[in-house]
Amino acid sequence: MSFTPSSRIDLGGQIAVEKHRHENGLTALVCPDHSAPLVSVQMWYRVGSADERAGQTGAAHFFEHLMWSPTRRRPAGEFDRLIESVGGDCNAATWVDWTSYRDTVASRDLEMVLELEAERMSELVLDDESLEAEREVVINERLERVEDDIDGFLDEKLCLTAFPVHPYGRPTIGFLDDIRRLDRPAIERFYETYYTPQNAIAVIAGDVTSADALAALERHFGGLAPGPKPPSRAAVSEPSQREPRRRGFDRPTATARLLVAYPIPGQGHADWSRLSTAAALLSSGPSSRLYRELVVEREIATYADVDVMPFRDIALLQISVGGTANTNAGELERATLDVIAGLTEDSITDGELEKVRASAETDFWSELETADGKGEALGHFEATLGDYRMLATIAERLRDFDAAGLAAVAKRYLTPDRRSAVWATPR
What we know:
Elements: E1 3-11, E2 15-22, E3 27-32, E4 38-45, H1 59-66, H2 78-85, E5 89-94, E6 99-106, H3 110-122, H4 128-147, H5 150-162, H6 176-181, H7 184-194, E7 200-206, H8 210-221, E8 245-251, E9 257-265, H9 270-283, H10 289-297, E10 301-308, E11 314-323, H11 329-341, H12 350-366, H13 371-385, H14 390-397, H15 403-413, E12 420-426
Parallel strand pairs: 3-7, 8-12
Antiparallel strand pairs: 1-2, 2-3, 4-6, 4-7, 5-6, 9-11, 9-12, 10-11
């Protein structure tokens, strides 16, 4: 056996996770869960849109489509057909820090899935026919989700505004011109650079023992060469923001829509968890501050959502607000800033904090109920922060501060001069 154990943790006293590393560089995370005879196999690659070269945006997302292309042994569509023939399902996702592929099948079909994943990691056929077919699919996806969608359009503009320097500002789906000119040599270089064992994380969660999972991984991945060491992402820091960045757009929408974002530390920083709690305090449920003020009491918005982006280098606390028929974007922005300014130590009660903390903890553990959820969480933290054990750290950090600590981080990061705002005005 060529796997070397490196660590083990127990989450909540119920979820045991083991990490092993193969001599060819493949990382394996195994999480036995015998509650159902299912297994989730997830292949995570440490590459996302932030790792792309300028002028080649969209390459990481392109592979979310190309990985279903033919291999040297199988025709196009065979991967899907085999997974579906055993009643399983499969999917893929790309974001700024990672790309992942998920297969959920009965545990008896683990060997088949690992054989397929190893094959497309090492034997994918990237011919002109596959490239052009998927290019049209990606172009149409961008037209539907960005050019012809108000929310997608504003999301892209917000990231470009908030991250003028960092590659997080570039859209994961890619700019349209870049998608059109991505050629086969560039695609082949991307595949050879990033789709290798030493850049991959194999997560197996479900009805399997650690010994059986590692033995199966050895049979299908053990003979693969490590591949080249992927280049490290260049360290890029955003210049200090001293005044708000604001951009408005006339769009075919019935009502005004507003997005506001504040730069905050990446997910590995302790303040990220505190700001996640602040986000819940602002928009988690009808009694939350932003929702209550804008939607319930003043009736100037139809929704108000706050999310904290789980990015590695630098993250965003992002606010989304949709106006009512007679509300303009300026009024929505002023009302939003007033609510955020109210996050002071004196205003946050123990009862309010405990309520949102309990909600955050419930959401955290609920996401780990299924094999898919466990695999996704483990893969994300290992790929994004380099250590799946950060999952346990996040859980601990949900309770390591009080109202004063929450107010302090809000005061530090959520200041008016650090915000970026984009909005759509009805055309």
